[in-house]
Amino acid sequence: MSLPRAIADKVRTDLRTAALTPVRVYRTMQTAIYDVRTGQRTAADVAKSVGATLGATLMVVLLLFPIYWIVAASLAANAQLMSSDGIFPDLAEFGLGAYRWAIYESNLLFRGEFGDFSQPGALFNSLLVVTVTITVGMAMIIPSAYALSRREFLGRKKILYGYVLFTQVGAGLGIAALIALYALFSNAGLTNNLVVLGVFYAATALPFNIWLLKTYMDNIPVSYEEAAMIDGAGLWDTIREIIIPLSKPGLAVVLIFTWLAGWNEFIIAQTLLRPENYTLSVELYQLATAGRYETPWTEFAAFAILFAMPVAIIYFFAQRYVESGLSFGGMEG
């Protein structure tokens, strides 16, 4: 199945599920009424279920409200975070001016005039950093996870304990040593280098993701590898044909986490990069702090949504893999 068709099928399924929600609610209510009349459930039990459902619905609404607010702010002219007119903008003021500004006038795509490929914008910088992060990270994560899962060697347990420790500190260790990190990069002439930044992000992503993928590989029966080797497969053939295909959900989770490590990080990028190499996260911060007396919240909201949209889209289409990988990989360890 091609990727466009898979995406279309998933969207169609989700829309059908959403459209049938009122029908399912109606049938659930009919079942509850029937159970009360026949004595299978008491009215108190039904009331508890209704209360729990309403409470969960209210919680979801509260969690989604900031998303509504920033979307409304990106569409409303002259949006403000606080207004005497309330928090619901006037629908008559809605427009796409902020998005046009973000695409054609901001540093999102180009730093010069729109279409000037000699001055790529923050999106190109972020994509370059993420590409390096994923390439270097996955090249280290997969063989390391396999070795820790399948091989016994000197110091293996100490390495595993060390990984458990570093999963708790992770990139926070680099942030805590920010001054030393900047001095080290500066003395080596490695500041304002997107490739080096991507390698650093990959390094900070290794402990947690290696541990996560190793835990997932622990659940793959060794007999599969033994059968492949009996048939004449070598070590790398076994990894390529057996381990990697069976680890797809775990690999999907690790890939997303590694990608997020390079896409979302802000503090290190702001410290090491100069304006021409700013990534999207730093560019968004600059937009929020550029105004001396006020912040252009409409443009800021539009830029923030475009920045966050790839994260939402990727997680939306990889949701099943992520849930499967996290649940299955968390069975042991």
From TrEMBL:
Cited InterPro entries: BP-dep_ABC_trans_perm, MetI-like, MetI-like_sf
Subcellular location(s) of the protein: Cell membrane
Keywords attached to this entry: Cell membrane, Membrane, Sugar transport, Transmembrane, Transmembrane helix, Transport
Entry-linked Gene3D superfamilies: MetI-like (1.10.3720.10)
Keyword Nuclease in record: no
Main localization, broad class: membrane
Segments passing through the bilayer: 50-71, 123-148, 160-182, 194-213, 300-318
The ABC transmembrane type-1 domain, residue ranges: 123-318
Domain of life (superkingdom): Archaea
UniProt xrefs under SUPFAM superfamilies: MetI-like
PROSITE patterns to which the protein is assigned, alphabetical: ABC_TM1
Similarity comment text for this entry: Belongs to the binding-protein-dependent transport system permease family. MalFG subfamily.
PANTHER family on file: MALTOSE TRANSPORT SYSTEM PERMEASE-RELATED, MALTOSE_MALTODEXTRIN TRANSPORT SYSTEM PERMEASE PROTEIN MALG
Name this protein carries in UniProt: Sugar ABC transporter permease
